[in-house]
Specification:
Layout: H1 5-22, H2 32-46, E1 53-55, E2 58-59, H3 66-78, H4 82-108, H5 110-122, H6 124-129, H7 136-155, H8 159-175, H9 179-194, H10 199-203, H11 207-228, H12 232-246, H13 266-273, H14 277-288, H15 292-303, H16 305-322, H17 333-350, H18 355-381, H19 390-399, E3 405-409, H20 414-419, E4 425-427, E5 441-447, H21 451-455, E6 462-467, E7 471-476
């Protein structure tokens, strides 16, 4: 046994509780996290639950709405703040942990289940995204639910697992799109080829009723979204799911830039995402390949139906994205549940070898949470090192009086949009002071790299009042009150 159940629950609760507490005081950072938070804020503010909006008048076609729905609802319940917008990701991660525990305990025993949950919860990528505003925790939850539901339905053919398989696909369609079906089918089909006896369980699923349930839960939004903003389906299905995959320099992205990486980089991302357990897995794999007896043991393990299920589940996302033109390290996340169970199987065996081995594994459990918490604490002390405009916006709004404006030169960072609640605007040209209507601009945020050149074009007296990582905020004197001073 890993250790007593009570101690395990206390440890898991401490790990998850630490992430829950810290995500509320760390500011939203640009670009991705703050962008999604702003989309969710606009959904809550406008009451438009069909179309996520990238900005006023610009629909956000890049992602389905499930994450935005949950985040906007969280805003309604807890107010517009960092904790509220990150809470749904944490809950999705907790849901994934629950599924891992149910599956691994049923198939491999309590000790494996305990280790699998700890491995997943403390892998670098999982621990970070559990407190971040991203779509990936929802996709990971959906794929894990689908794979667990199918595996459990072969042992416990209850309606909960049989129909849960199809409900999970609906969740995935609303979380990230058709990718969930590719990930699930890509894992199941090779496994059923490997183990032909498994096909019977697959065929016995309630396909007609199940697919009807999936369509009922997910398709209405897709239809409504296309009717509301025509062109959505073409961009989302063709652009986001096909062109983004095959074209490493895809220029059709309406909301950002392509994440071009050398093909095969996903495997490096996998080692980083699974840290520190990825290094442990690599060590164990190399150990298993040394000596004929160990090789034979490894071959027997791969022939086991349950373990090979985990292998195809883990490997398919990595193989799929090996050939992708645009990747991020978060693409590894759907593979980490299966990886965690496989490592849990090994850890449950290795921990019996010696007290030193057990102690080493226990130390690894706390490594990532402590490093992430330390990083967050360091940047709270030094907020100017973060890519966020929270403090800049807060400073300006504390000192602004009626009629004053906060204006950014160039595009407004999403963190500024979020923290200003949309009450800011941008100007594009340097000689803004000569333009009509500029008299209300009292606080001007200028990109650091352009400050020296742009300052020469400001005809009125000004004072530097705040500096962030990317902007310098100035207070501009106004002719309506020549003696006005900064509050």
């Amino acid at each position: 046994m890993l250790f007593r159940n009570r101690a395990w629950w206390l440890l898991l609760s401490a790990l998850l509780g630490l992430r829950l507490l810290t995500m509320g005081w760390f500011p939203l950072t640009d670009t991705t996290e703050a962008r999604y938070a702003e989309v969710a804020r606009l959904m809550a503010a406008t009451g438009d639950w069909i179309t996520p909006w990238f900005a006023e008048g610009v629909p956000f076609w890049g992602k389905p709405p499930l994450a935005f729905w949950s985040e906007a609802l969280s805003f309604k319940l807890f107010g517009i703040n960092e904790f509220a917008v990150r809470l749904p990701s944490w809950l999705a991660t907790v849901g994934t942990l629950a599924l891992i525990h149910v599956y691994s305990r049923s198939h491999f025993g309590r000790s494996v289940a305990m280790w699998a949950v700890l491995v997943y919860a403390t892998s670098a990528l999982v621990y970070i995204v559990a407190g971040a505003v991203l779509m990936d925790p929802f996709l990971a939850f959906a794929t894990t639910w689908a794979m667990v539901a199918f595996a459990m339905s072969t042992r416990q053919p209850s309606w909960m697992w049989r129909y849960g398989f199809f409900a999970s696909l609906a969740v995935g369609l609303l979380a990230k799109g058709p990718l969930v079906m590719v990930l699930v089918a890509g894992a199941l089909i090779p496994w059923m080829i490997w183990h032909p006896s498994a096909r019977k369980s697959f065929m016995q699923l309630p396909w007609f009723a199940g697919l009807s349930l999936m369509a009922f839960l997910s398709f209405p939004w897709y239809v409504a979204a296309e009717l509301r903003t025509p062109g959505f389906l073409n961009y989302f299905l063709i652009g986001e799911h096909f062109l983004r995959f095959i074209d490493s320099g895809w220029t059709g992205d309406l909301y950002g830039t392509a994440h071009q990486e050398a093909k095969g980089t996903i495997w490096i991302h996998a080692l980083i995402a699974a840290f520190p357990w990825g290094a442990v897995a690599l060590f164990m794999l190399l150990q298993g390949l040394l000596g004929s007896a160990r090789k034979q043991k490894l071959r027997l393990a791969l022939q086991d139906k349950d373990k090979s299920y985990l292998v195809t589940w883990m490997l398919f996302p990595l193989l799929l994205f090996t050939f992708a033109g645009n990747i991020l390290w978060t693409y590894v996340l759907p593979a980490l549940a299966a990886f965690s169970v496989l490592i849990g199987i090994s850890l449950a065996s290795w921990q019996e070898k010696s007290p030193k081995v057990r102690l080493g594994f226990y130390a690894l459990v706390g490594f990532v949470p402590l490093v992430v918490t330390g990083y967050m604490a360091l940047h709270i002390i030094q907020p100017d090192k973060l890519k966020t405009e929270k403090e800049l916006v807060a400073y300006a709004f504390r000192h602004m009086t009626g009629g004053d404006e906060l204006v950014f030169v160039g595009p407004i960072p999403f963190s500024a949009m979020f923290y200003a609640r949309g009450l800011t605007r941008s100007v594009a040209d340097f000689n803004w002071a000569s333009k009509s209507g500029s008299s209300s601009i009292r606080y001007l945020a200028i990109p650091r790299e352009d400050f020296d050149q742009m300052a020469k074009n400001i005809s009125r007296p000004f004072t530097k009042v705040f500096e962030s990582r990317h902007f310098i905020l100035i207070f501009v004197e106004h002719p309506r009150n020549p003696d006005s001073q900064q509050s």
